[in-house]
């Protein structure tokens, strides 16, 4: 392999000759051989947007000449488009509050710009990663700003994915509206309800998650770009500080706003803890719903679509693997929330030094949840109901007597259950028809009655 030699504060280092990154990224690759997972592509693209905004602001104020400006912007656009993804080798976890990722992006932009101007990689006298690409910036304002940009795009995509799952669940709510089944509490028969009503609970929980996720953008839109190292804007012209946020709004299309107190925005990241908690709340919804679905499948009330063979030793076994995968995804998000909380808690002074861990966890959770929602939505679309199985469970369960309390009272209901057990009967529904009459039983256990939100006092309630 051919190399070029670059210099920094610590001395010289060989960098692969064909690499667009430089000495800072190369040192980080050596220093941070940790997870094997690279900085999230979404964060890299967002950083390129930030760099493009800074370049435009500096150009408009006369700090960059037109040729260099065009070359830097063109390089940023190529990164934003997803090109050169292999040129960002730095591990997601790194010391320095994201400095290595910031420098990796600076170097790739610089070398792409240099090439477009007809010179060779590493000729930083023409376009320098720090003097030109990072002009009037610090990792401490570009990295947090880019993270918020990436997160806003992420929560928008996630909100749309949740809406897709919500829609799939609502379709089943309608389809199953007239199927009466046993409701269960404490894993025991409780009172009768409809399968549609059960799915309505999932749909409403998802609706709340969708709204909360969508509203995360409000928590994330205040950024500290222009604050440089500690939020005071030291070394940056005031005109640049006010202009760069305008440029970033234009480039991202997002309703970003410069934080009124950039020292606060640089030193504190409590908004990330709040967003992470909302992602965790959605993970809890997914786990609950997925677990319920596999339980209903086991009880025979619904049939989950068979998607793969379930066992290497049991030939006929098919497992509820999609629901199990969704539950594991939710567990991972819950674990990531703990990482975000810990990372932000350990911030000191005027910096959030463990932001790379929080970024990796948050962006990972958003991506995982987005994929999970899409996976589960496709699976839910294929769910079918077994009305016969639901009906059989209703017929044999003495718990359905609760529905008759307004008509017969508690004592009479308790007496009927004792009689049923004493007679060693197995079909409680038929038993009730014999004791109370077919008309009352059918009306009381109809889907319309069970979902009518109680009964009206003016209604005749049958016998006492």
Overview of the molecule:
- It contains 17 helices and eight strands.
- It is mainly alpha-helical and 464 residues long.
- It has three domains: 3-135, Fumarase/aspartase (N-terminal domain) (Fumarase C, Chain B, domain 1), CATH 1.10.275.10; 141-232 and 269-387, Fumarase/aspartase (Central domain) (Fumarase C, Chain A, domain 2), CATH 1.20.200; 397-450, Ribonucleotide Reductase Protein R1, domain 1.
- The strands form four sheets. A two-stranded antiparallel sheet has the order 1-2. A two-stranded antiparallel sheet has the order 3-4.
- Helix 2 crosses helix 4 and helix 15 (428-436) packs across helix 16.
- Residues 11-334 form the Fumarate lyase N-terminal domain.
Q: How many domains would you count in the coordinates? A: 3
What would the average pLDDT be, to the nearest integer? Answer: 95
Topology order in helix (H) and strand (E) letters: EEHHHHHHEEHEHEHHEHHEHHHHH
Q: Strand arrangement, largest sheet?
A: 1-2
Bulk shape: elongated
The radius of gyration is: 30 Å
